[in-house]
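(Deposited chain)
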Amino acid sequence: MSSQVVDVNITAPFDPFADVVTGDESGSKGRSHMRIQQRNGQKTLTTVPSQSPDKPSAPVAPVAPVAPVAAVASVAAVAAVAPVRQQFVPINQSSSGAAAYRNRFKRGPGDIFDPRIPSHQQPTSAASQLTTAGPATESPPPRLNRFSGATIKGVLASPGDWKNSPPNKSTPSGPIDLAQYAQVFQTALKGKFIDSHTHFDFTFGKLDASVNTYTQLRQKYPEVFPESYGGAIQVFCSPQSLKNPLPWADRLMAGTDQEMWYSYGLHPNWADEWSDHLRNGMEEGMRMAKMSNRLVAVGEIGLDYSRSNSGEEKRKAQRDVLQIQLEWAVREGLPIVIHCRNDEGPTGNAQADNDCFDLLKQFVPHDHKLHRHCFTGGYTEAERWMEHFPNIAFGFVPSKYGKRNPARDETIRRLGIERILLETDAPYFPPTGMKNFPGGNSIPGGLALVTACEISNLKHMPLEEVVQATTSNNGRLFGIRL
């Protein structure tokens, strides 16, 4: 009988941040990983305590065999998402504060919008966002062993080699280099995970013309869609996507009933473009999603006081449009996806958090379901939201360029796993260590597994438990059942 043993550190797979974690996290105390033993095609998982180089680990008993999971489940094998709500009530009001900005910025039909860029800095066409440079010439970094600092292939390196390293900005050919996460992506897990917040529409605008649909994206980058990938929530939040929902019926809706759900809401960076045209397009998109029982939320909406949104006039427009959309979500009984970003300058403060919290207290019922998207705040801030809104969950994205946020990490450690959602927020936040991303942009969907690995590491929790718990959280919050 032949066997093959492959070590996969499920709780902290080749953690590239080992040298920057403080306190007990800097060592291997209390950590464990799974050893996958293959015998005649069957995989047996054995939990093995992680060890320091000078301390051997004690033997442990194997757990039950794990059956491989199919890459894409059949229609009959996956339960349908529960119908969202009974009646759609169109919105019949507009914001006078937003109306003053309505026609300030004009764009053509081919424009691609980026919610992280102020309106006056947006490109004039999709072509301006496509990178035309040749294939990447930079070699992918060696994979690191988090315990010794040596690389897997024996090339000398330190665990900090990836820190603060920007992504490759060229347009590379070939597969994405999964680096330290390669083995995890090739391992069948118990259960499937969901990317709770991503932007396929923005991603298509940053890729070459050969990738124009969800199916084409999966075919071109199969390495980032592991067997444990269960689907994603596509967030439509730009004026371009909201005004023109019909093209997305073919690009992101057709043939994706097992793996795609939808949320609609105007991002605060574009509050000055709220209009009847946008509202009508948003209503139409929501109707289409609702017909297939895949409308799950309103958002991402909220307040963003960063960058050029410093003027009180712009912030008032954001608050006006947020109020409109909050009242809309409450009427529809839909969960709300909140984007809240403070002024991050040297004189910045938490005013966006405070204003957003106050508006929700005023217009949203105490027990309404909320998703605090891309949460980076401390546990005290999270606790304030949980005390007033008990049905809130917090979404987290992969760490970018090796930069760790101590407040965010501490929040993950202290939050109950029932409060946590996995996000990619792609095409933003390409995971640290991975290389060969197209134009330096992350890919939606499967890379939420990287977020699960980080949470597993921070909470000292087996990766499979993180996957199962966060998928269950999507069921409670959004009604998604796998």
Remarks:
- The radius of gyration is 22 Å.
